[in-house]
Write a structure and sequence with these properties.
OB fold (Dihydrolipoamide Acetyltransferase, E2P), ABC_transporter-like_ATP-bd, Rossmann fold, alpha+beta, six-stranded mixed sheet, 25% helix, ATP binding, 365 residues, ATP-binding, molybdenum, single chain
Length: 365
């Protein structure tokens, strides 16, 4: 049964957000998308900080926004919690007083609000921090307190606005695990805005991908991230994506290139995408001969360390189709050395990317 339902339109001078999302009770939806796609605008509408130009927002049995009917419940009466990138704790209050602030505003007596605050501080592994002020907390500690504050008001909907983005590499994994435990144990319904695919995989049941104010992909997390249908979803999932039209044996790009692959669904003659992992791409300094495979000449744009591998990122040279830009291959350092025919491999070098037909999956776009 749908617990959260929002279909809204927000118009700005050069931008329009026009989206519909829905969540079941206890479900978490991750919203992904490039900067400027409309993610923060959507959060603002759900939180009651922005009034949409058209549409309706329902939470449980309550209508929070209904533009035609003139309904707009203010932010503090929505039952919606928000955990942002920055903790935004009140600097003059202790951690416990920060967490107790929400219940106190809701009319809870001081002793009961303090009990609630201590409970949630313990839930987020911050019980010993209750007496400290924000200036005495690390970034990770402050974010734990902010999470306790968001949950202390028992929100019907929890909005998570890139809650790990401001944390260092040591604090983020612990906070991610904490969010998974606390949000899941509490059965909290949530909407998560993130740029990190790991956040979506760990925390979200569903994923929506926003681009230019519209949802271009929506579905179960693993399906969207393993079978992406948009360039952004492919990039965040670490996959290569080539758009075109499905044809027998693969896909034909707009510039006429045939990409051979395995069709996961029918629909020949319809828009489709070819998806394959960077690890499946072999790289050569000269055009390879031999077994049947997809071969493409590319211009090297960058070399990026990826643990024990090196990612070679292609860029679109003059005259190349735009989909070439961003294609990637993961190779070993030894392979990079072998590609450096003149002793160095630097951006601007011409290379050949090759991928076997069996490594390419064709999906409807």
């Amino acid at each position: 049964m749908t617990f959260v339902e929002a279909g809204v339109t927000v118009r700005r001078r050069e931008f329009t957000l026009d989206v519909s999302v829905s969540l079941a009770k206890g479900e978490v939806l991750a919203v992904l998308g490039p900067n400027g796609a409309g993610k923060s605008t959507l959060l603002g509408v759900l939180a009651g900080l922005l009034r949409p130009d058209a549409g309706r927002v329902r939470l449980g049995d309550r209508v929070l926004t209904d533009v035609p009917a003139g309904v707009h419940v203010p932010a503090h009466r929505r039952g919606v919690g928000l955990l942002a990138q920055r903790s935004l704790l009140f600097p003059h209050l202790t951690a416990e007083a920060n967490v107790a602030f929400g219940p106190r505003c809701a009319g809870v007596r001081r002793a009961k609000a303090g009990e609630t605050a201590r409970h949630w501080l313990a839930e987020v592994d911050a019980a010993e921090l209750g007496h400290r002020r924000p200036s005495a907390l690390s970034g990770g500690q402050a974010q734990r307190v902010a999470l306790a504050r968001a949950l202390a008001v028992s929100p019907e909907l929890l909005l998570l606005d890139e809650p790990l983005a401001a944390l260092d590499v040591d604090s983020a994994p612990a906070m991610r695990a904490l969010l998974h435990r606390v949000v899941r144990d509490a059965g909290t319904t949530g909407l998560l805005v993130t740029h990190d695919v790991l956040d979506a995989l760990v925390l979200a049941d569903q994923v929506a991908v926003l681009a230019d104010g519209s949802i271009v992909e929506y579905g179960p997390t693993r399906e969207v991230l393993t079978r992406p249908r948009s360039p952004f979803a492919a990039r965040i999932a670490g996959l290569n994506l080539v758009p075109g039209v499905a044809v027998p044996g693969g896909l034909r790009t707009a510039d006429g290139l045939l990409v051979a692959g395995l069709a996961a669904d029918g629909g020949q003659g319809k828009p489709a995408v070819a998806v394959f992992p960077p690890a499946a791409v072999a790289v050569f300094p000269e055009r390879p001969e031999g077994s049947p495979r997809n071969v493409l000449r590319v211009r090297l744009a960058s070399l990026e360390p990826r643990g024990e591998l090196v990612r070679l990122r292609a860029g679109a040279a003059p005259g190349d189709p735009p989909w070439v830009d961003g294609l990637a291959a993961d190779v070993t350092p030894a392979a990079v050395a072998d590609l450096a025919l003149d002793g160095t491999l630097a951006p601007g070098a011409d290379l050949w990317f090759a991928v076997k037909t069996t490594e390419v999956l064709i999906h409807p776009a």
